[in-house]
Design brief:
- This protein is of the alpha/beta class and 471 residues long.
- The protein has three domains: 106 residues, CBS-domain (Roll), CATH 3.10.580; 228 residues, Type I PLP-dependent aspartate aminotransferase-like (Major domain) (Aspartate Aminotransferase, domain 2), CATH 3.40.640.10; 115 residues, Aspartate Aminotransferase, domain 1, CATH 3.90.1150.
- 36% of the residues lie in helices and 17% in strands.
- Strand 12 and strand 13 form a beta hairpin.
- The longest helix has 19 residues.
Length: 471
């Protein structure tokens, strides 16, 4: 089916059909045609949202809501004149023939801005979300929550999955369940997003920041071993940018020193160590489903584990600490860390396609590697480390000079990029907790995340290559 077919919707259809078309074409709009293919209106996703906010429902006819006063062009109009019709509001224009039949469309240059990440929502996300919406189970109970927990834990190879409201609270819940609190030390890597250390501080425990490996950019087991004291209670290895930590060494250290291991897998859905999925190796694995992650629920997270005890306690704490057998009786001081059925519905659909999503990301990375292999001033993230099977979250490279200049030039060309995370150790609020940081400071200063989404076309990669060669 070509894109024009995906943009067409008959005027006798309802809003559910129109929204499915909008979800399918990814353009935020459908062109409404009558039985003879004549263009009679346009309808945007914003029109539908506003309609629902006013208390209406999706069973209404497209004909009721479509905009009959719309901008269009004839197929005889010169392209330069069509360009004059675009503005901040109008990004796509239907083109008709003399009989007013829809024959084509023109879209404002989508390559004017290339975002670093775009969620891949091409499956049954809208179908399942609509089903959850129409069921009226839109809060923290419903069939999609149970299904998402079961399907995701099965995917990761664990017995249990506990869905939560975001990846940060997944880490916080894990720390709480493991009894980590005042007087305990938790070892964390220097190069990570701040949530990893913040949850330790919120538990009134003491984080200990250690350096990373130069080849993997993940936490260095040698530094972990050096940092252990009688107060050490846990390690949080972060599978950074889709790379996998050296879990053999980490688990060996944990066993010898009687330490808990909480895997931070926010950026590494589906990555593996020695054939085992990340998150299933330590005591508890924590995931994020934020919008830029491999699979997304908008916001959301998951704790996975093989422990009956941890599973049961996480479920109670997630739900206000309330007894599972005696309603409104609270056995613990709990939280409201629950995911909604609406979010879980999107997650179920995302998980159905996780293998293809990962494959598409890998293809994008291979295109970058092939195009940039002869660019002397960059190096890619390692992908051949012993026992480690990384995934592509972002395409990550190190630039040996003038990173700031490159980021500026790419931005001027409408190409969104991200520098690596700042090391925790250079931020004043975390200085008291630094143990070692030599490698992390260097790697952070060189790293760039390139746009990694299924809309990256070859000519965009070529443009990036030209800018790199000039940099």
């Amino acid at each position: 089916m070509n894109m024009l077919s995906k943009l067409k919707c008959k005027n006798n259809r309802n809003l559910i059909d129109a929204w499915k078309k909008i979800n399918e074409n990814g353009k935020g709009i459908v062109f409404i045609i009558d039985e003879s293919d004549k263009l009679v209106g346009v309808l945007t996703d914003g029109d539908i949202r506003n309609f629902l906010i006013k208390g209406n429902n999706l069973n209404a006819s497209v004909d009721e809501l479509m905009n009959k006063m719309f901008v269009y062009a004839f197929d005889s109009t010169k392209p330069n004149n069509i360009l004059l019709l675009f503005n901040e509001r109008i990004k796509i224009i239907p083109i008709v023939n003399n009989d007013f039949k829809l024959v084509d469309f023109m879209e404002y240059n989508a390559n004017m801005h290339i975002p670093v990440a775009i969620p891949d929502l091409k499956g049954k996300e809208f179908e399942f979300l609509t089903d959850a919406f129409l069921s009226t189970w839109i809060s923290s109970s419903g069939k999609y929550i149970d299904r998402f927990e079961k399907d995701f834990s099965n995917y990761c190879g664990t017995e249990y999955g506990v869905a939560v409201s975001n990846g940060t609270v997944a880490l916080q819940l894990a720390l709480d369940v493991l009894g980590i609190g005042p007087g305990d030390e938790v070892i964390v890597p220097d190069l990570t997003f701040a949530a990893t250390i913040n949850v330790v501080l919120h538990r009134n425990a003491t984080p200990v920041i250690v350096d990373i490996e130069e080849d993997s950019w993940c936490i260095d087991p040698i530094e972990i071993l050096k940092a252990i004291t009688p107060k050490t209670k846990a390690i949080i290895p972060v599978h950074l940018y889709g790379q996998v930590c050296d879990m053999d060494k980490i688990m060996k250290i944990a066993k010898e020193h009687n330490l808990f291991v909480i895997e931070d897998c926010a950026e590494a859905h589906g990555a593996m160590y020695d054939g085992q999925k990340v998150g299933s190796i330590g005591d508890i694995g924590c995931f994020s489903f934020y919008g830029n992650k491999v699979i997304t629920t908008g916001e959301g997270g998951m704790c996975i584990t093989n422990s009956d005890i941890f599973n049961e306690k996480m479920r109670v704490l997630r739900d206000h600490g309330m007894s599972k057998t005696k309603r409104y009786w609270h056995d613990y001081v709990g939280y409201n860390f629950r995911m909604t059925n609406l979010q879980a519905a999107i997650g179920v659909a995302q998980l159905e396609r996780i293998d293809s999503i990962l494959e598409n990301r890998s293809i994008v990375e291979e295109k970058y590697r092939k195009a940039l292999k002869n660019v002397s001033n960059i190096s890619f993230q390692a992908n051949d480390l012993n026992k480690r099977k990384k995934i592509t979250w972002f395409v990550c490279v190190l630039l040996d000079h003038n990173r700031g200049g490159l980021l500026k030039k790419l931005s001027e060309e409408g190409i969104d990029t991200r520098p690596f995370f700042y090391p925790l150790s250079i931020m004043p609020i975390y200085l008291p907790y630094v143990f070692s940081n030599k490698v992390s400071v260097k790697i952070s200063s060189l790293g760039i995340n390139l746009p990694t989404n299924n809309k990256i076309e070859d000519h965009i990669i070529e443009k990036i290559k030209k800018i790199l060669l000039k940099n």
